[in-house]
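Anyone opening a protein record will find just a pair of labelled lines. A complete record is shown below as an example.
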Amino acid sequence: MNNIKTKKKRSGSNPSFNKSNRGGSGRRQPRKKAVSTLDPNLLIKKAVKVEEEEYVPTRTFDDMPLDVNLKANIFDKGFRFPTKIQDETLEALLEGTDLIGVANTGTGKTGAFLIPIINQMLSNRKSSKALIVVPTRELALQVEEEFKSLSHRLGLYAACFIGGTNLGRDMMRLRKRNHIIIGTPGRLMDLVGRDALRMDDINTLVLDEFDRMLDMGFVNDIKRMVKLMSRRNHTMLFSATVDDTQKALIDTLLNNPVEVKVSSGKTTNENIDQDIIRVAEGEDKFQMLLDLVSGEDFQKVIVFAETKRMADKIAKKLNQSGVKSDQIHGNKSQNYRQNALNRFKNGQVKILVATDVAARGIDVTDVTHVINYQLPLNFDSYVHRIGRTGRGGKVGKAYTFVDEADNKQ
């Protein structure tokens, strides 16, 4: 097996750029390059076309114990039958039981928690208030959009708070009546710190993409939020993967929860062909990428880069080469990111170049390929990225470029 060769640490060097890290010449020392811990050989795997048993619900939404007006909105969205996670969690959530839902994006989990929350609020508006916490801006906007369609004409209101938007405007929106607050941890805690958002009147908490929030370092924000929720009596936690190291934290968040699994929570998607492309020292990697994506079957492609600068560079060179591309990462405004995603979804661009900000929470069902332009730093990141393809029973493909210069035995 190949091992990733780490660079020797320079004497006296440090990744941070404070005064103590400037050399005798006064120049800044270069930031230490993050080194992947992945063995590339683990990223080679043929897709196993698992003929999953199609979930056949025994009831329609009309058979469910839901408010008739909520049912009408569900029907207006074109849904008659629930997905597995919606069907198997409804009664428990209507009863106020805490829940762990192990499910990937695209399984209907957003509806699984919004439908019972809306139903409960219709019967008890005054004392019900929910907080839905998600890891990314894009997922927050997606949840807000879903809520608006499900609560149309029902007199329920939600507000979404994410980074990259006007903080003063957010504070003004919090003065209005909101039945549901949706947001990313950083912006929510910023509003709490400014005394604009109160947590002591929230009784229902939803933590969506929980594993990704932990990956992104939001664990302390989550703990602080939970500590402030003195009225919290109902908690739902949804996660695509389950790690034994999370158990102690989960036990502090949930009280005697039920667990519903739609995915195993442990392995990469079996419907994905996974392979690596070795790049010899001195070889033109971008030309290799260009040759790869010129194939006819590369219809809708996400290319992942480790840095924002690299994402910009790849997208620019692809466009200059005649391949319609766009990019999303943390330096792009929220409007730009949303518009880029929309262009990708509707086929205006063939390739979306992204950093890990897009690895989760992006619901694009027909991505044909995921390409890692660089070796991901860890396996969790890899799993989240390739999970953008091979969905809906289709076979997807994932390729990872491996620079031989960085991967010598």
Summary: The chain has 13 helices and 13 strands. The chain has two domains: 37-50+270-406, 61-261. The CA atoms of residues 67 and 119 lie 6 Å apart. The radius of gyration is 23 Å.
